[in-house]
Amino acid sequence: MTRDSGLPPPGPSDGAGAARPESMPPESVRPESARPESVPPGSLRFDSARGERPLVQAERLSKLYPVQRGPFAKPAFVQAVDGVSFHVDRGETLGLVGESGSGKSTLGRLAIRLIEPTVGRVLFDGVDLTTLSARALRAMRRRMQIVFQDPYGSLNPRMTLREIVGEGIVIHRLARSRDEETAMVEGVLQKVGLRPDMMERFPHELSGGQRQRVAIARALAVRPDFIVCDEPVSALDLSVQAQIVNLLEELQDELSLSLLFISHDLRVVEHVSHRVAVMYLGRLVELGPAQAVTERRHHPYTRALFEATPSIERGGKARRLLPGAPGSAINPPEGCVFHPRCRKAEEGKCDVEIPPLEELVPGSGHRVACWYPEVE
To answer: Which GO molecular function annotation, any one, does this entry have (predicted)?
Structure first.
């Protein structure tokens, strides 16, 4: 069941694509002029629908990765994220959906500064993460955590559950004694549905679902305000997926967490999110309330994602798979990045001009980056 939430007001830069550097190395495309002062007035200074400052506010994030070539070759870069802006309110889940290679995981890591942006900034509770020193950032880390996709690779096989979950408690000095640390680990394990007597077990003794619960417990142990869930159920069986999704919803309601929930499955994102952002080849193409995005699907890519998802609601009708493959992130298409695969693309328009992420209905909070959106 889709969650209801307030609608964010319109804003001109909430996900608009930024100009793509031709051949600049990452360090050279991050001048002071491209940092906070370069964000135009009225962009994302204060756009929470609840009348308060968003907990997380990303402004025109871009990330370039250099590609190794021969000594005489022209420099090349992978454009993983291209001028993306978004915000997450307190207690809100923003779902981020897209195909593999769309830049979802990179954006999630940028949101908590696990990796450095090439251009742009992230405000966390009003503090610019990109300006913090290593020491100040470490202190801020307690308030923002991540649950990784692979429950088999994200846990140290040489550590017990007590050590895995308690590591953050020790690093951030949240417990005054060993007994208090043990009590905190027991409490958070119980909160995610694991027995305290499992504390001395190693990851290889657990099932995939139990491992992911440990990963969630590790994130919760330091009492964060914001958690990036990077495809937390994609490596699990369907029955276990439902358990983990329900657990995350319960924990969010109980602890008032803010979540960035990343997935390639639009239906899972629809179920857990207040708002949904659709990403394609490094850019946001649609953003809005979860029910509006999944029901109206104004962008052709959003519609294609939905139609390619297996569903019993279609009464056995075959899925309509999106033709072609995503474009190259090294040499992205000009204009709208989706136009090579779009049945509505028009030459001279879609292959030349980048569509802004704008509301079709003013005040709806439902934005789409398309020159010819799907309107029924």
So the answer is: ATP hydrolysis activity
Residue 188, helix vs strand vs coil? helix
Distance CA 338, CA 300 (A): 9
Can you tell me the distance from the alpha carbon of 165 to that of 156, in angstroms, rounded to the nearest whole number? 11
Assess contact for 241 and 267: CB atoms under 8 A.
no
The rounded distance, in Å, linking the Cα atoms of 185 and 173 is 14
Kind and range of the H or E run holding 227? strand 226-230
> How many other C-beta atoms can be found within 10 angstroms of the C-beta atom of residue 71?
4
pTM score, whole prediction: 0.83
Q: Give the 3-state secondary structure of residue 185.
A: helix
pLDDT, tens digit (0-9, with 9 covering 90-100), for 69-89: 777 778 889 999 999 999 999
Helix (H) or strand (E) holding 296: helix 290-296
DSSP per residue, 104-138 = HHHHHHHHTTSS--SEEEEEETTEEGGG--HHHHH
Report how many domains make up the chain. Answer: 1
Domain that holds residue 115: 26-143+224-368
Q: What is the DSSP letter of 228?
A: E
C-beta of residue 129 within 8 angstroms of C-beta of residue 123: yes
Helix (H, G, I), strand (E, B) or coil at 339: helix
**104 in a structural domain:** yes
